[in-house]
Write a structure and sequence with these properties.
GO terms for molecular function: ATP binding; glutamate-cysteine ligase activity. By secondary structure, the chain is of the alpha+beta class. About 45% of the residues lie in helices and about 15% in strands.
């Protein structure tokens, strides 16, 4: 791992380029159970000029990730990702499988899933064992270009208290192991609270401090690559971006697109504050963790703490979207009820996990049409 090369990459990086990564469950269209079809989709996708670059593996063979590649701004990245989604659904149709987009799969047993055969994921499985095998989760991740290594680290620091707000907004996974977890984002409890070097990082302030930490982990044989730092926001050494990794996968196209735009707007506002020297003092991790738990448990149905107010008080988590819109000055379209809220309303009405998931799968398909449906 060449940390000096990573630093140089940030020195030449461009502000507010955008890359999008979305993780999808590959399912049987009738039973809605997970099916191990990644390798077949990958092989066929290699024949498509767009999917050849867009498709990536993500731990298990019943999961597939698509990536937009570099967009010059958020609208360009969304355009690229929409085309990749459209082609992915056409590919799935040809193979007789479905695609689902929620933070966890509510039906299939994690013990029945198979880790894909790559060097990276063999290392993950060997190193983490049960923690890796248990992680059948699906996320939305956004890369945002930042010019300057110190600015990148400072932007990550500034986003720390924002992460629980984005989590509450994006919550979309009440089920785990075929049961109602009682949570709004069981994905976060399964992944973020289990993986090492995960969740909300400490503030690092400078690239030098970040580099010292990564070098310590390398020297002590704690990691062999920087991607083993699974923080919910991190500087990405390969792209010259900061990667926001806090969000559940989103059920519909419009809410995924709105959330992506909101995340990019948050990073843009953080950079404006950094450049103006107006960044508020770092919030203690223990207070951010309180909001993380509230977001995990109650999502937008609960309350969050206003961590930057002179006197910390609660506010309804349903206000998080409007608060971030006001902070960033950007208006985005997001539904009044997020994915977890819609699912929990069905659960409260007596729907089974299959029935709830069927609604989600149908919502997803309706907003991500394939080539055949467009034609």
């Amino acid at each position: 791992m060449d940390l000096n090369a990573a630093r140089e990459l940030f020195e030449t990086s461009q502000d507010l380029t955008v890359g999008i990564e979305e993780e999808w469950a590959i399912i049987d269209p009738q039973t809605l159970e997970l099916v191990p079809k990644y390798e077949a989709l990958r092989a066929d996708g290699d024949q498509d000029d767009v999917l050849r670059e867009a498709i990536s593996g993500e731990l298990i063979s019943s999961e597939i990730e698509i990536r937009s590649g570099r967009g010059e701004d958020v609208q360009h990245a969304l355009q690229l990702q929409r085309e990749a989604r459209r082609r992915l659904f056409a590919l799935a149709d040809r193979h007789g499988v479905g695609l689902a987009s929620t933070g966890t799969h509510p039906l299939s047993d994690y013990r029945d899933q198979h880790i894909i055969d790559t060097e990276h994921y063999r290392r993950v499985q060997d190193g983490l064992q049960y923690v890796a095998r248990r992680n059948n989760t699906f996320a939305l991740q956004v890369h945002i270009g930042v010019n300057g290594p110190d600015r990148a680290i400072q932007a990550c620091d500034r986003l720390r208290p924002v992460l629980p707000m984005l989590l509450a907004i994006s919550a979309n996974s009440p089920f785990v192991d075929g049961q109602d977890s009682g949570l709004h984002t069981a994905r976060t409890q399964t992944f973020t609270k289990s993986f090492p070097r995960c969740g909300v990082p400490d503030p690092f302030e400078t690239w030098g401090n970040w580099q010292d930490y990564v070098e310590l982990l390398l020297r002590t044989n704690s990691i062999v690559e920087f991607t083993q730092l699974w923080w919910s926001v991190r500087a990405h050494h390969s792209y010259g971006t900061i990667e926001v990794r806090i969000c559940d996968a989103q059920t519909t196209g419009p809410e995924a697109d709105g959330l992506i735009q909101l995340i990019v707007a948050c990073v843009a506002q953080a950079l404006r504050e950094i450049d103006a020297g107006e960044v508020p003092p770092a919030v203690p991790g223990r207070l951010i963790e309180e909001n993380m738990w509230r977001a995990i448990r109650y999502g937008q149905d609960g309350h969050l703490l206003d961590l930057e107010a002179p006197r910390i008080e609660e506010y309804p988590a349903a206000e998080a979207v409007d608060r971030l819109k006001a902070w960033t000055g950007v208006d985005v379209a997001l539904p009044e009820l997020n994915g977890a809220q819609r699912q929990r309303r069905l659960i409260d009405g007596g729907a089974s996990p299959y029935e709830v998931f069927k609604v989600c799968v149908d919502e997803t398909r309706a907003t991500y049409p394939s080539e055949e449906k467009i034609a």
